[in-house]
Amino acid sequence: MTKENHDTRFSPAPPDPVDMGILEMRDAIDAIDDKLLALINERLDLVTAVGRIKAREGRQVLDSTRESQIFERLLRQNQGPLDEKVLTHLFTQIMAASRQLQRPQRVSYLGPEATFTHIAAMNHFGHSVEYAPQPSIRDVFGDVEKGASHYGLVPVENSIEGAVNHTLDLFFESELRICAERYLAISHDLLCRAGDIREIETVYSHPQALAQCRRWLQKYLPDAELMECNSTARAAQKAANTPGAAAIAAREAAQIYHLKVAASRIEDVARNTTRFLVIGQDEVHRTGKDKTSLMFVTSHVPGALYKVLKPMSDNGLNMVKLESRPTKHQNWSYFFFVDVEGHIEDPAVSDTIAEMKQICLYLKYLGSYPRAEENHP
Question: Is the pTM value of this prediction over 0.85?
Fold first, then answer.
């Protein structure tokens, strides 16, 4: 290799660690850290240049399609020992910093701090964006619709409790699109000021969290008074300010509200997962592993739903969700929410939607976006 074409960022492979002492290994680690820092800053320089092009062309900063492709490529190339979850976390933070350099972003979520929605938002967008807690799901929609926030994150369904109906209802009123989805494994911890379960007289939490931990509470805190709150984060706030009180909440709430973990993973049923949606104004392009969401109303006649869904079968689409909600405008009239695999840029999906429109009384396209895996960190 000549001096001219030698890449000075990389030096020859380090000696085998077996032949190195601890001080030599630390020196080698420091050298690698220096290279990583230089490469990350080089990446951010390129990202800043991309941001200038996006601004000139009026393009959005968040490109869910591109980010999904990056994660897929990195996970495919990773040979270990780096854990896939750690890899994803590291690059989530790098890409969050990249977006902030292009244009500072604001994300609304169902607050206060340390709700599971907040945790899901941080997992998706990283820690570099500005987060705006909202008192209700309606306020999250409103904040994004007004342009005060670039995106919002809202819960839509839980593997144990089912659909979050208020979120579904708000899609009828809103023109926002679904830009991405995120799954979060829900685990409940018992948090209190002293960290001693014997001192707990009152337990605060959201009604769903109390229900999901009922057997544990009956076994270990049978005499404790159970008090409902509108969120697990609000429960943590109450526990932080109330002697003899505890909260059932996410572990992350302990640090934020200066509590101690008295017991971990106290939920009665494992594998409890909540699906969240990122809402915004973006049109997300096809990745090849996508999902499309629709809502529609059928005629109130026998066989109407079968006729509406038949084009999906005819075009070979896989339906992964079907949910009904009353329209509230007429008795026994329902909205249906459906998720199918594929993207509106796929001919099979666009043709199906066109056929369904001819049959439905009302049909609304809610968005196409990269399909997330339930075990996505």
Answer: no
